[in-house]
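Reading a protein record of the kind used here takes little practice once its layout is understood. The reader may check this reading against the record printed directly beneath this paragraph.
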Amino acid sequence: MELLIEKNKKLINLKNIKEIDIDHSGKAHKEQCKRISSSVPKELGLYVYTSAQDNKVLYVGEGILQNRLWRHINKTKPGHNQKDERNIFFHLLKIQMKVFYVEASVLNFSKKKIGQLESAYKLLLNPLYDQMVEANILKENCKIDLNEWEN
């Protein structure tokens, strides 16, 4: 499968991209964790969160894929109280999401190369999270309206 993301007339084309739909609404938390466990490998890789509704790029990250997706979904649990920007972002953005990911081994990339690819994707795709961090508005009581942001 190929993922082709058109962004400002620029194209990224990576073979062997996989995807998983994740419900970040906070409902059925255990089921979401099970889906991640059964679908996403415990391997180093790159991942891109998008909104399922309009494919807005929300977040770009790298790391051990299964562990990173678990950590993000855990931020939607009731009672989650960590207050850093990433935790606030995922806790407040309780929507249906689609996550595209690729393992570093498929690309024959080292950790350093995956980090560089993550940086390139962030520059190219301008994820909502990065825009909000730059604007310094990810605070505990903020609201996230996807219609107010473009990427």
The mean pLDDT is 84. The CA atoms of residues 79 and 129 lie 22 Å apart. Strands lie at 2-7, 10-15, 18-23, 44-51, 57-64, 96-103. Helices lie at 29-39, 65-74, 85-92, 104-107, 111-125, 128-134.
